[in-house]
Amino acid sequence: MDRRLSLLFAVSLLVAVSFTAADESSDDGDLMIRQVVGGEHEPNDEHHHFRLFKRRFGKSYASEEEHNYR
Q1: What is the superkingdom listed in this entry's lineage (predicted)?
Q2: CA angle, corner 49, sides to 45 and 52, nearest 5?
């Protein structure tokens, strides 16, 4: 039974990763390449990656104080 659960977990993880990768690639090209290489289309403010994180994971915060803390 443990082997079945391990296999189910592995398959679920692969499916989740493939959907996540497909979601990231829909944002103006490959996200990892854009982060490493930068370029003229890369926003240069320090909060860019936090905005991407919030959008990707659906994060919102109850107050501006909590947002600034995060």
Answers
A1: Eukaryota
A2: 120
pLDDT digits (tens, 9 = 90+) for 16-65: 777 665 554 455 555 555 555 555 555 667 788 888 999 999 999 999 99
Cα–Cα distance list, 55 to 14, 17, 33, 52, 58 (Å): 22, 17, 19, 5, 5
Using an 8 Å Cβ cutoff, are 43 and 34 in contact?
no
Closest C-alpha among 17, 23, 20, 22 to residue 9: 17
Tokens of 18: 């493939």
Kindly state the tokens that stand for 38: 């930068």
